[in-house]
Amino acid sequence: MKDVVVSYLQEHWTPQQISERFKLEGFESVSHETICKFIYKDAQRGGRLFKLLPKHHRARRRRGRKIHDKRGSIAHMRTLKERPNSAVSRKYQGHWGQDSMLGKNRSRNIQALKCENHKADTVHHATVKMLKNQKVKSITNDQGREYARHQSTEEAFDTKIYFCDAGKPYQRGLNEGKIVILRRYIPTKTYLKSLTQKQLSQITDKNNKTPMKCLGWLTPYEVMFKTRIALVN
Question: Which CATH number applies to 75-233?
Answer without folding.
Answer: 3.30.420.10
